[in-house]
Amino acid sequence: MSSPQPRIGVLRFPGACDDRDALWALAALDADAVFVWHTETDLTGLDAIVLPGGFSYGDYLRCGAISRFAPVMTEVVTWAGRGMPVLGICNGFQILCESHLLPGALIRNDHRRFICRDQRLRIENNRTPWTSSYAEGAEVTIVIKNGEGGFVADRGTLDRIEGEGQVVARYLHDNPNGSLRDIAGITNERGNVVGLMPHPEHAVEALTGAGTDGLGFFTSLVEQTFA
User: Fold this and answer.
1) Active-site entry in 90, 97, 124, 202
2) 38, 97, 148, 199: which one is catalytic?
């Protein structure tokens, strides 16, 4: 049973650098946000999980390939299968793909350079726990920063996720990393697991950064899913 305030766990992997930003974004909305260490083996009592961005395990091997085997990910896979809302941001998106909770993979940017900038996006699916605060087709600006952000999948997989409405967000105007079909974020078939390459936690404060367009990813969960 959910608590009056949703209790949301923010995973902490060695080397990750955006976990505090994600925690702050959730806490600012009065969610009961807590850190969950990568060695944890019990997620009982949590209502949702955020896998933050950063460089878990230094991005050795492939990005997210080591984190995929962290003890906590066994629990994340189990609870996601039961319908728990899960959001993976940047490195978290990579981990979700490595864990086969989302289809496809993230590879090296096509221009072979790390990119950091404000990026225009279009919200393609507002029927997930993480996007319901947005109007479908809404255009937003959210920070992007990655070196391996190019989303790829075989043509059949791309056609399927397009046809079933699993594309959550798409890059507008200028694809920053070579993602196929300009895909910036996707969801699983059930709609509870979302992976997003841009960083909404860096777009929640009007005083800094790109503005507040990223708030919707968190208000969707806090204000609507657990209202």
Assistant:
1) 90
2) 199
What's the CA gap between 2 and 6, in Å, rounded?
6
Measured over the CA atoms of residue 37, residue 21, residue 123 and residue 227, the dihedral's sign is positive
Tell me if residue 173 is catalytic: no
| 100 carries an active-site annotation | no
Distance CA 131, CA 116 (A): 23
CA end-to-end distance (rounded Å), the chain: 13
Q: Among residues 96, 101, 122, 105, which one has the least CA distance to residue 175?
A: 122
| Upper half-sphere CA count for residue 13 (Cβ side, 13 Å) | 28
Least confident of 4-8, 49-53, 68-72, 151-155: 4-8
| Type of residue at 42 | D
Please write the tens of the pLDDT for every residue from 113-141: 999 999 999 999 999 999 999 999 999 99
Mean pLDDT rounded to a whole number for the chain: 93
pLDDT band at 4 (very low <50, low <70, confident <90, very high): low
Asked if 116 is an active-site residue, the reply is no
